[in-house]
């Protein structure tokens, strides 16, 4: 659960239901059930549909008897492994727990889905079963990045749904990322920046200049402030709330940030463990160091959100433990409660119809565009 | 100066001469002269040619009278500013201190050049005055990255010379980066990885698969071990010594790493300053925290090296202070002493001739290829 977000509550009495894929994570279904127990305790009004192998899940559920009233078990005999290729799962994935978790969303049984399985396969199954949101060409994965911004986090997308993005895709990422920042981070008017190798206008690839012009032109329709180009050093800063980039660059940046944080914490551990004085000092500083650890803990921000599909899918890190999985589940519940999906769809449709009317720059399925109202300031 | 490197010494009696651009850094010529004084004290056999405005430099030099025997002043009335466009400097840059510093190298007066000025302009002037090394299509900028590798640093290139790189360019980066790791870091047989969004063969852009095949085929000629794809999280790891990528991705990764390190150190400072116990603890841990700071200090690894030109140019960070500038000057002296430029040229020619004979994959000027011996294991 991201700090500062309201705990999800049913608004009109309709229960919030989250569909959870119990299988496919590095730590197995035990970690998922333990994470589910944490979320269920924190979110007593939310209900869950848990997909996976009953023979494994029943004994795990029995350890948490309080879950029985909150969780419906849905048997799935097969599991998507980390080695499975997305194309194979698209053809032969029916009957897996991942497929089942997405179908709960497709069938309207759940308001959001969570999985810590194979990212490529999850995106493939989500695309196949949920289909793309009308007006969206390439869906994206958005991550939260610890930052100096008031909310404590910045949004970056795409971090790996697709290795390519043309200027129109980058515009859609800006619109979707801004909507996510409003609904997931309560950032009223997100500041959007386009990732480049310098902030000057002439820097970078030609297509980024074109994208920058589009993002600037659509800032009003997308209800964001456009900052122009930002650099890698700005990603964790308080200059920006939403960083837009293609999935190749975003994925490299995300993993580089993770690797750098891991290097520093490893060296810090080594140095603080060296010598008696340092170890005494570390004892005195324990609370500070724990607060530092907490502020930088990647488990707190666990959950890449798939944007641009007909439904909200949260991808938990494959190696997530109970704390991390609970964070992903709580994020899904938060987004379901905020009716994020409908808001996002309306925003994309509204931005699509504006751009279509103005400059006809959005390609693809525009059937949803007519229905866009675009008047809800929290979209 | 990077730890573990030998201090430069004249080998056959020929003095090592380094050409230094005194102007154009954020802190002005005072920082450059102060850095020069540090390097001159550490490297008594090295001589320097200092380019810049005499009226400003003479009083600064007077503060370090010991420099008189080591430094020749070369007046340049004009300065390249951070705002100047590379294209303008290429046409009208003659008479600037940057141009003069590069011409010292071109004319054989110096063995390496250092500048902390405008990167784009420095690359443009270097390309124009030094010309590309025969066989090289795109020059690259290589940086050193604090890492878990035995040398304490990994090499990454390109970090911003060019936003594009095709598979043949990436192969040349691998050959040049491996040569730099051998000569700059004393890594006997560098492990080379190609940056991608996953380590599996099918991941990433199609051109990266092609580049990966080239890098694998040329590992023997380039005298490196090819690891295949690596991810952002591997950049600071001990899995790899040389990370190959295009200048767009490399620049974003470099700045993301810097931004992440800055965020963590800022939060650490805040947390350790909060509360009496923490402040007492920080006192006890002072030596450890200072060692941590030293190990992560970006000034220790200050100096992006331009590879693929007829001469060694070291780009110091624009905001470098005396310590940072001294590190860049000492790196230049180390590379000049190691005759890095000749070794690199021979290696590129040798790899070029191999690939040309085998598969004719290297395009561009091949006039240097015939002279390549490729038998020197330290190239």
UniProtKB/TrEMBL annotation, chains A, B:
Keywords: Acyltransferase, Cytoplasm, Lipid biosynthesis, Lipid metabolism, Phospholipid biosynthesis, Phospholipid metabolism, Transferase
Cellular compartments annotated: Cytoplasm
Pathway assignment: Lipid metabolism; phospholipid metabolism
Enzyme Commission identifier(s): 2.3.1.274
Main localization (coarse): cytoplasm
Top-rank taxon: Bacteria
Annotated stretches, region: Disordered: 357-379
Reaction equations catalysed: a fatty acyl-[ACP] + phosphate = an acyl phosphate + holo-[ACP]
Broadest EC class assigned to this enzyme: transferase
Molecular function GO terms recorded: phosphate:acyl-[acyl carrier protein] acyltransferase activity
Subunit structure: Homodimer. Probably interacts with PlsY.
Family membership noted in the UniProt record: Belongs to the PlsX family.
Protein task: Catalyzes the reversible formation of acyl-phosphate (acyl-PO(4)) from acyl-[acyl-carrier-protein] (acyl-ACP). This enzyme utilizes acyl-ACP as fatty acyl donor, but not acyl-CoA.
PANTHER family (UniProt xref): FATTY ACID/PHOSPHOLIPID SYNTHESIS PROTEIN PLSX, PHOSPHATE ACYLTRANSFERASE
NCBIfam families: plsX
Name by which UniProt lists this protein: Phosphate acyltransferase
């Amino acid at each position: 659960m991201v700090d500062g977000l309201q705990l999800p509550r049913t608004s009109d009495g309709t229960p919030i239901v989250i569909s959870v894929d119990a299988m496919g994570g590095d730590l197995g279904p035990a970690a998922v059930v333990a994470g589910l127990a944490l979320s269920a305790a924190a979110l007593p009004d939310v209900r869950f549909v848990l997909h996976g192998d009953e023979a494994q899940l029943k004994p795990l559920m029995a350890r948490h008897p309080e879950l029985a009233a909150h969780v419906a078990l849905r048997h799935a005999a097969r599991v998507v492994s980390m080695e499975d290729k997305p194309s194979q799962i698209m053809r032969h994935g029916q009957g897996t727990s991942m497929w089942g978790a997405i179908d709960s969303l497709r069938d309207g049984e759940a308001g959001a889905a969570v999985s810590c399985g194979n990212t490529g396969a999850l995106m493939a199954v989500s695309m196949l079963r949920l289909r793309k949101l009308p007006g969206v060409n390439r869906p994206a994965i958005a991550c939260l990045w610890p930052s100096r911004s008031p909310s404590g986090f910045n949004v970056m997308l795409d971090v790996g749904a697709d290795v390519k993005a043309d200027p129109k895709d980058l515009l859609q990422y800006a619109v979707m990322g801004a909507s996510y920042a409003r609904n997931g981070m309560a950032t009223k008017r997100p500041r959007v920046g386009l990732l480049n190798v310098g902030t000057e206008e002439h820097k970078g690839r030609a297509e980024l200049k074109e994208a920058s012009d589009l993002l600037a032109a659509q800032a009003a329709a997308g209800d964001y402030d456009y900052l122009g180009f930002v650099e890698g050093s700005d990603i964790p800063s308080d200059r920006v709330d939403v960083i837009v980039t293609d999935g190749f660059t975003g994925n490299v940046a995300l993993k580089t940030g993770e690797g750098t944080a891991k290097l520093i914490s490893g060296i810090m551990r080594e140095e603080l463990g060296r010598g008696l004085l340092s170890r005494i000092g570390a004892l005195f500083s324990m609370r500070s160091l724990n607060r530092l650890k907490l502020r930088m803990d990647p488990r707190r921000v666990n959950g890449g959100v798939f944007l641009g599909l007909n439904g909200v899918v949260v991808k938990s890190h494959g190696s997530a433990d109970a704390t991390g999985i609970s964070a992903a589940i709580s994020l899904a519940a938060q987004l379901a409660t905020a009716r994020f999906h409908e808001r996002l769809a309306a925003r994309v449709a509204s931005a699509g119809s504006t751009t279509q009317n103005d400059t006809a720059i959005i390609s693809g399925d525009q059937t949803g565009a007519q229905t866009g109202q675009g008047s809800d300031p929290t979209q």
